[in-house]
Amino acid sequence: MSNENVDDIFSGTKDVAENLKFDELKLQEWFGDKIPESEKITNISQFKGGQSNPTYKISAGNKEFVLRRKPPGILLPSAHAVDREYKVITALENTAVPVPKTYGLCEDKEIIGTEFFVMDFLDGNIYWDLLLTDKSPEERKAIYISKNKVIAELHKVDYKAVGLSDYGKPGNYIARQVSRWTKQYIASETKNIPAMNNLIEWLPSNIPDEDETSIVHGDYRLDNMVFGSDNKVIGVLDWELSTLGHPIADFSYHCMGWRNTPQLNDEKFCKENGIPTEKEYRDMYSEITERALDEHWEFYAIFNIFKLAGILQGIMGRVRDGTAASKHAEERGNQVMPLAEAAWALVEQNYK
Q: Given 3.40.50.300, 1.10.630.10, 3.30.365.10, 3.30.200.20, which CATH number is that of 3-120?
């Protein structure tokens, strides 16, 4: 899929889908109560992006807002937690992490049918292509430096001081995640994968003895950031997977692009195109956070590949059970074995 097609599919807005429409008058009343300075709502459209939480652009006079809601219908109890997204974005408002200003969380389902929150619309650029092919080397460098600084600043935030002590369980994040994804994998298993069995046995007894806790985004990717005209991040979006967790695991997940994008594996390509190598990018993060990454870096890569394999096996399990029959779901499930084998190869290269 070309970058142009990705932009066409995921960027911008469309008319609100029929099943996601709601009573605009009730929303207008809520706006009048919670955002008294706002003018009359003149337009509501739906963002095209494939978020699991339907997201709308609300135009009110000369100002634009974003509304994120739970989807209608029967949902898993912990899924689509817009209240958690609202909580973390609001808590980060006066930190060095750029986030949109929030205006309120509505838990009254009578207003639009499900819980929702409202925040500022950020008028900037969202990029989907890690190679940033339409940018100059100088612009690419600025974008990479900015996204590195923002995740480093996120991991420096004192979660207790900003009121997020109860946002997750502090400590033992890696062990809990290994246990969680092992159980998911076993419950969804569709064929015997020796590399996955090896990882399930190896991981619990090789977790580095450097436990710490910070706010983690959980899905810190280039396309979850909005950039200003100066190529700096003006807002981080999509906090649905955020929690209290291990900062290096979060940063390692963010760095997976260097492992699965062939060009970024090529130091010569990176240097010619203004993109830092994985090592240079790690060093930038270490300088800001004062965290040493070298000793256990490969462990976190192994852990994140294992976790991704567990997530994809869950999709394969749903294909098996007939609850995810799409060809795309099956294609993703077929990546489990190569991922497990890549992770086990890293174990053999670095730990044997």
A: 3.30.200.20
